[in-house]
Amino acid sequence: MMDVPALKEVLRKSQEPQGCFFNRTQEQVDALLQGLLTNRKRYGYMSCPCRLASGDRNKDRDIICPCVYREPDIHEYGSCYCGLYVNKDWNDEVVDHRRVPERRPSADKR
């Protein structure tokens, strides 16, 4: 079973080359990574811990981390919805830290 430090290293190596960095607030990162591990154990996949997963992988495909909303969120706000991934400018406080709105359609619109 993977733990938070191991998951952090795997994701760091795969995401940083894409320009996606972990939020500099380590407590938040660790809590979100623990949520991903909990969801993997619960559902069999790492759905975003900030969104309600259905337990159906096909219905939740858009929120499997990194979710499909991450790229547009980071492009527009410098951070993804849950704040796990940010760009360098966000961590360096070059851009304002604004609340990222939910892009995922409500369940009745999916």
Automatic annotation (TrEMBL):
This is ferredoxin:thioredoxin reductase. It catalyses: [thioredoxin]-disulfide + 2 reduced [2Fe-2S]-[ferredoxin] + 2 H(+) = [thioredoxin]-dithiol + 2 oxidized [2Fe-2S]-[ferredoxin]. It holds the Pfam family FeThRed_B. Keywords: 4Fe-4S, Disulfide bond, Iron, Iron-sulfur, Metal-binding, Oxidoreductase. Catalytic subunit of the ferredoxin-thioredoxin reductase (FTR), which catalyzes the two-electron reduction of thioredoxins by the electrons provided by reduced ferredoxin. Its cofactor is [4Fe-4S] cluster. One of its GO terms (molecular function) is oxidoreductase activity, acting on iron-sulfur proteins as donors. Heterodimer of subunit A (variable subunit) and subunit B (catalytic subunit). Heterodimeric FTR forms a complex with ferredoxin and thioredoxin. PANTHER family: FERREDOXIN-THIOREDOXIN REDUCTASE CATALYTIC CHAIN, CHLOROPLASTIC. The keyword Glycoprotein does not apply. It is an enzyme of class 1 (oxidoreductase). InterPro entries: FTR_bsu, FTR_bsu_sf. The keyword Cytoplasm does not apply. Its EC number is 1.8.7.2. It comes from the Bacteria. Belongs to the ferredoxin thioredoxin reductase beta subunit family.
